[in-house]
């Protein structure tokens, strides 16, 4: 009897933490988002010396409160899954760990020499902002579009590198060392800076022919910036249209929810699915308590 009660408690806690279909799960996500944003605000305020000097103790206490809450969340995520290593070594598991541990390290590393290292460790708390990505559904679609476009983008970047080498070499031959183009690598560097429309101004062509080549490179730069954006945008639009088309034609086949497998953490299962499509583990579909 106690065994059933323990399992029931774990399953319901798992639904609250890993899923957002239930009111309790939605509330958990909202509260967690609030604390993530609060922790980011604390890190930003601590970096302002005037504010930190005046409210250091208050910020320190607030940071400990957030750290303890995130620690409890981290432990809860570990104990509610069947394979804890799956979460611990996952992307978000590592981010959760890195964003929580610096405050505990500050307890053990004390002294003047360690203060410099601690300032670097405190920057790890910025990783908390990456936890926001799990709540942005559109980010998955954008990541998919970038991944689908990687071959085209790679070819494009390779062409840009070749063009930079060619124009950089030409500028080295035209301008020469007397005008600051002392070698080909430095000339290629200038070409990349100009092509990307950054224009640091540390090197500039002096001859009419060099200035003409620079003008051509600048004009090319505007077109080059637009190409990868267009590639990703086209892929994003294509995938969005495909998803909408599938939704209109076969709504039942892609009617997905946030049901997450307790065994392998795979999400986005079909509604009323009883088993995980990846590992075959039985899903926890008892939502009667919510």
Just give the CATH class of the largest domain.
Answer: Mainly Alpha
Number of domains: 2
Arithmetic mean of pLDDT: 79
- The CATH architecture of the largest domain can be given as Up-down Bundle
CATH topology of the largest domain: Four Helix Bundle (Hemerythrin (Met), subunit A)
- Please tally the helical runs, counting DSSP H or I stretches of 4 or more residues: 10
Characteristics of this structure?
Helix Hairpins; single chain; mainly alpha; disordered N terminus; 290 residues; Four Helix Bundle (Hemerythrin (Met), subunit A)
Structural overview:
With 290 residues, the protein is an all-alpha fold. The chain folds into two domains: 134 residues, Four Helix Bundle (Hemerythrin (Met), subunit A) (Up-down Bundle), CATH 1.20.120.350; 103 residues, Helix Hairpins, CATH 1.10.287. It is built from ten helices and no strands. The chain is flat. The N terminus is likely disordered.
Task: Sum this structure up briefly.
This protein has 290 residues and is mostly helical. The chain has 2 domains: 2-135, Voltage-gated potassium channels. Chain C (Four Helix Bundle (Hemerythrin (Met), subunit A), Up-down Bundle), CATH 1.20.120.350; 147-249, Helix Hairpins.
